[in-house]
Every structure is written in structure tokens, then in C-alpha cells.
Amino acid sequence: MTGKPITMRRIRRMRAEPRVVSLAGLRDTDGGGKEIDIIDNDSNDETVFEQPKVLRSVLMRAEAESDQTNLGHTTVKTIKAAEEAPRIVPPSIARGDPTNTLKGGVRGQMKRRHSTVNNPPTAITEAAALKQMSSHLLGEGLVLESGRSTVVKLHQHDLRTFTLHHRGTQGMRVAAYNDVGQPLLDVDLLATEEQQSIVLPLKSDYLVVTGYGGDEALYEIDSPDAGAISLHHSTDDTAGAGFHPRTRLVSTPVGYVCRGGMVSLSSTGLEDRPWVEAVDALKTTKEAVFHTSSNISTFAIVHAHDDPPSIEGNGVEFISDASVIQGTSLSISIWAVKRSTDSSLCTISTSFVESGSLHSMVALAGHHQEWVEFFKSRDWTTIIEEGAICGHGESILHLSAGDEQVQLKRVEDVAPSLKKDRNRLSQGPRFNLGALAVGEVVKKDLSKHAADKEQDAIVFSMLSGPKNASVSKDGVLNFTPQKEDIGLFEIVVQVSDSGGTGGTATFHGTVGDENTRPYWVGGE
After folding, report:
1. Is the pTM for the entire model greater than 0.70?
2. CB contact at 8 A, 200 and 154
């Protein structure tokens, strides 16, 4: 010891984030045996708390009601073309007694609840937009639409207590994780016109909220809990939590948000993207840790024939050996499980010898033997979808620290500015630019898509899009996709004339690598 007091300023330089530190009464002795203060208690530095902030927000296949003809499953290969998704409850879950209806499917046997159209995901990534969302979340209220997942960094190293206040016209999932991705809270909530509040667990570093859509009458559940909606309700005649290669996963700093859970995948290299296609993340994965509801009866993994999984559960007990069904290209291993914890959450870990052997992880509720028969007779990749359960409904959210009193507005009474902000980038027509390749030079005249009744000169401007895209004032789009653009893209363009600004249009498409890897798209 030198005998020189350590100031608060110096302590803060040694820490990654501001924290509350108790400094009083700490003493030591110098070389001569004299007691000295280690801490300079006379420092007047103020402790500064970082405010929670929205990291990313993805509208996952936003679904609006439509009278379009049914084109098939919501998760078929051509999902990017926008397909219809009837919403029903699987009979093995909706009924208390075992049935034999799943084997042949029940699409034509049950009444449709909703008819919706699926669109590709759109992500909010602009810093200004995310800052504004953070301001709404901490202020007048943040709108969460059906199908949207929003990730919030809480900064709870200082042990503040945060409360999430909510009300709205849709079912919703609320999940909180610590800084290493362990779930501290995961609950599915029904729509409520009366304001409700949830106190988030201490040391919750990340909050994820997902809008499922649908009012209370849609969901046949006894009480809100982990998986109450996601395990029991689906677009097709099956439900469940998990992912398959065509699933879109929302990225967070601690894992990927999937239907009804969170999964950590080893060595993906894609963490900087707001969302990813699961096939891209799985091709480099040897290990996966899946957090989901412990209220499940069956767990299944689709994998390569010659690389069966090693598996371990925490919160659920495997009560059967694996039933293995071999398809033409892949195998599926299915276990019966039961809850073995007081917690409503469980963790299932799996590992493989080779990268790319894992294709799907699926957690299911209902009758185990019926699910086994189902897997023997159906396409394995139609069992999970991401995004909304129903195409309508939204919620208002507010995050407060401590005992702050909050009264949220009703959804229909949200300030017009909030609805304007929310809809600004989603209004107007959509134009498909098709499939582009990395390095391909795209030059497209957009002026033919716009008109002015007074024949005024029209000025075009790009509101959002990839960093390598630009739109000239006379409406020429220039875009040369790079590797970071691989996947889906959207370019939002606004028109204006001497009378003011007009509407927006969205030009969208996909970017593929120069030589993309083929991947599995079906099963037996």
C-alpha cells in the first residue's frame, strides 16, 4: 500500500459499467503500522445509472387479416411469397382424452379462427429509431404489435427493481434473462384491458417481449404461465416451442429468441444480425442449449443419421428411451419427459460430434404417443412457426424503476404520434425486387411506380435500407449487395412534390451468397 486514498473516479475506471458501491469504513495499515483510509469518502462524484434501452426490434412475419385463397402451411418453403395461415388448436391439446386425429391431420376437420397472410420479417436497426423506442418505453408507452419481438437491455448490475406495466388487446410473451442467458422469467400473458404489472427479477439484464396477437377469447388456457400460449396454439394443426431450419430467430446478446423459448448455439458468427435464418446458424453448430417451459410431455430432435445427439435436461426428467424414426435424409429422436422442478422453466442441452448435424429442437405438450405417431406420418418441419399466433391485436408497455406510479393509455387511445411512428415505415405498396447475389449491381428506375395528378415534379428519398443502397432524387435505385446484406432486405422510399411529402413504398427482396449451400427443406 502507498497510503494514497483511492478516489471514486479511479474505481469507476476499473469497472465496465457504473455500479452502486458502499465505500464507508474501509481501512488498511501502511508500512509503519498506521491505519489509513483506502477510500476517499470526501469524493463528491454522483453515481450515474444507465437507462434501459431498446437494442433491436423485429416484426416477425407480420400478419394482417386477408381473404386470399389458402396456399398451404405457414412454414412451407415458399413462405417468402406470403402465405395464408389458419389458426386452430391441435386436438391432442384442446381435448383432455387421447385422440387419433393427428395422424391424418386435422386441417379440414376444424373451424378456422383467423385467416392471415405472412410477410417477411422487418427489423428496426436505425439508432435514432431505437432511441425513440427507448424513450417511449420509459415515457408515454411503447406500442408492441402482433408478431413483433423487442429486445431491451436493462443494465441491472446496480440491483434496481424494474416493473413492466402492460395492457392491450393481444396475448403476449414476456421473458427476462441474466447476463449469461439464463432465464429468470418467461410467461405467456392474455390480453387485458385493465393495466397489469410484472416485477422483473433482480439481475435481469435483458427483457424480451413478443406480441402473439389475439384477444382473451382466442386462447383456451386456464392461467398464464410459461408456454401457456406457445405450446397450445399454432397456425396449423400442430403447436410447440422450438425451431427448425426455416425458422427465423431474433438475435440477442445472450442467445436467439425462438417460438416459446431461447436457444444458445455454438459458433454461429451471426450475432450482429437482428435476426437470422436458423439454417445459417445451425450449419456451424455442435452444441445447443434450449430454455423453454417445463410444462411439456415430449421433446424431439431432428438430426443427421450418423450423429445422434447427447442430451441432458435440467427441470425436466426423461422418462423414456429415445424413439428413433429414420427418414430419407435425416432421423428424429423423440423422448417422453415430465416436469421435475417447481420452476415453470427448464433447460435442455444437446451436443453433436459434427457441426451441422442439428436441424430441429421441438418441445411439445399433449399426449406423447400421439406425437410419436404424428412424426411417423407428417412433414417434420411444419411443427413450429415464429411470429404471431393471430394477425391482430397490440399492447402498450411501460418500464419503470422502483415504485413509480404509472397509468397506461388504452391501445385505441395511444397518442397519434406513436401510431404515426409505428406505421411510418410499413404503409404503402410493396414491390418485390426478387433474388439478388452478393456483388450484383442493381440499378432500377422507381419513378414508373409513382404518379402525381397535377403533373408536378416528384422527388424521391430513401428513408431506410441497407447501407450500400441509395435512391437519387429522380427515383433511381442503386444497390450493390455485400456479404452483410445476405438474407432479406427492405428499402423504404418516400415521394414528395411542391405540395409536401407523399406516401412511402417498400422495395424488398433477398440477397444470396455467390454459391449458397443446399439445405434440408422437408422430411417424412
Report:
1. no
2. yes
